[in-house]
Structure formats: C-alpha cells, structure tokens
C-alpha cells in the first residue's frame, strides 16, 4: 500500500515529506493508521548516524499509536476500529529461548527494529512511525486500554518501557531508593513509574529550572549534578540509579551516590564509556549494568500499569511539519517532556 511520511536521506539532511510503499498485509498482520508518534532522542541519533548503522532514507519513529484499519485473516487480538500501539520492534524469530520468554529484544537471531533494519519477511528497510500507516505482525502490536488518552500514550512505547524494564528487573518497590539521571523523555517517565511503584525518587539533573516539574510529577528530591557539595552530601543513598544521559559522560561523578550493592543502569548512552575509576566499584560492591527497551509482554504490562495508575507522559503535541524544529529543540536537551507528532493531520496520499 502507498503511504506518506517524513524521512531524511543523509546524516546532514532535514526530514522531508516522503512517499513510500508498505507491504500488503499478510495473514497475521495488522494495518494501522497512525494517529500519534513520539520523538525519542534515539530518532535524532539515528537521523544523524551517530551509531554508524543508519540506512537511508530513514523514516524514524518507534513510539506509535493508531487505529486499526485492516487485519489479516489470522489476526485474533484486534478488529478494525480498535486502537493499537507499536514500539521499538516489529518482528523477531519467535522460537528461540528469549522470544519464548517474551524477551524478544534479546532474540538470538536479532530482533527487527521498527526502522532502519532489513525486514525479516521481504528484506526491505523497515520504516517507522513518522508516517501515515504501518503494517506490523500482531504479536508486535500492543492493545491500548479503553479510555486511555491516545495523544499521551505513544511515549510509553519507548520512554516508558525502557525505564519500566530496569525498575522491574531490579525489583523496585516501596523499600527502594531510586535516582534518575537526566530529566528528558526517558528520565521523566522513570520518575513517574518509580514513584508509582512506591519508591523514594530523586531526579539528578544539570538543570535547576526543572526542579518544580520534577517534584510535580513525583520526585521526592532534586539533586543538581553540577553542585559538587550537594553530590558529596548525597553519597551512598541509592539502591538503583537509572542513567538516561544521551552522550558519553563521566560515570565517576555518579558511582559514589550508590549504596553498598547498588547498581547504576545505563539506558541512555550507546557507545564507549568515558574512563571509569574502579575504586567506587570495589569499595561498595557497586555495579554498572545496561538495559535495552523491553519485551512485548513487559511492554503490554507497562501500558496496562500506566492505565491502572493514571500515569501519562508529559507531552507537547506538534504538527508533522514542525518535526525539524522539535529535533533542534531536543538537541539542546532542555525539555522535561516528550514531543509527540499529530500524525493524523498528515494529508492522505492519493490512491492509498
Ligand atoms: P532527552 O529527552 O533528550 O533527555 C536526555 C536528558 O539527559 C536531558 O534532558 C538532560 O537532562 C540530560 N543530558 C543531556 N545531555 C547531557 C550531558 N551532556 N550530560 C549530562 N546530562 C545530559 O533524551 P531521551 O529521549 O530521554 O533519550 C535519552 C537517551 O536514551 C538517548 O541517548 C536515547 O538514544 C537513549 N535510549 C535508549 C533506549 C534503550 O533501549 N536503552 C531506549 C530509548 C532511548 P537534564 O537537563 O536534567 O540534565
Ligand atoms: Zn526510543
């Protein structure tokens, strides 16, 4: 089927209007008309080829919600008119041990990312949610609980699951002391989710102007990472730190904040770390770990958790033609919320 979206053709090119084909739905496919797509910082990294594996033309977007407009003959979970949600993966082998555990992000054959990787079925390059339509096998489409505000649901599909998964892996609950580094799309969701799990939550930020919002969305404390005295006074106070910083940065500043046996989980930076001092690791049996997105079972779980707890991401809705402006703003790293593109306002291509 013909559709339309926004794509960039090189690391320096802006996103521009782009027409392309989606595959005709297979028996287990769901066809969605996309209503909203969140802008993740990963979309910017990929558009600029920061990680070196971008395939152009690139249609970004892996925080997607929409309305089902057609289904294949074997689809059982959806009917036309339902709402559905797609995150960072659209396929996996479905038979390895990790897929069977519902941890398709660790598929032994490699999961199929929502954009910029070869599709397992036809080898075409996958294209993401900055588009009018998407065709995805039903196992990779989540259901959206009745009554959930669709305009604020999309960021749960990446910012939500990427922070929920480590909070669950490290058993965060009312006993936990959680620090979150970086108050952006991921960081603000980490605060909301950890607070909803009953943890004591501290936002660790370079931006003093974000304190008010941080406290409004559930942070108990606000630690300014550039204040050496405040950082020293906060030694040994966290069981878990979720680090969402998007660039290479100094871990030495944060490790002493962990209590004995505490863990700092990197979910932000992809790529080589800066030089790390082993002393705080040894002296407090502290650990550093990483965590990527989450499996489909857990992605559905975080959507349902948010619906049950009344949690929604903080969003600024923009029109598709404002996407380059939003990228530029996000790169300045000064926004404690998610931009979400109103994809429904994109005009439908002829003969779609
Ligand atoms: P974002 O909205 O831009 O937020 C990042 C925040 O980090 C900023 O708001 C800022 O918060 C802080 N920050 C930025 N530059 C910094 C620096 N040089 N030093 C210290 N802090 C800095 O980005 P996002 O969408 O949350 O994404 C964050 C990162 O997670 C990106 O690298 C993205 O690619 C990655 N990601 C990973 C996964 C995964 O599977 N693990 C999934 C999604 C995204 P303050 O102003 O509060 O300091
Ligand atoms: Zn993302």
Automatic annotation (TrEMBL):
Keywords: Metal-binding, Oxidoreductase, Zinc. SMART domains: PKS_ER. Its cofactor is Zn(2+). GO terms for molecular function: alcohol dehydrogenase (NADP+) activity; zinc ion binding. CDD domains: CAD1 (cd05283). It comes from the Bacteria. Residues 13-341 form the Enoyl reductase (ER) domain. The keyword Transmembrane helix does not apply. SUPFAM superfamilies: GroES-like, NAD(P)-binding Rossmann-fold domains. Belongs to the zinc-containing alcohol dehydrogenase family. PANTHER family: ALDEHYDE REDUCTASE. This is Uncharacterized zinc-type alcohol dehydrogenase-like protein. The lineage of its organism: Bacteria, Pseudomonadati, Pseudomonadota, Alphaproteobacteria, Hyphomicrobiales.
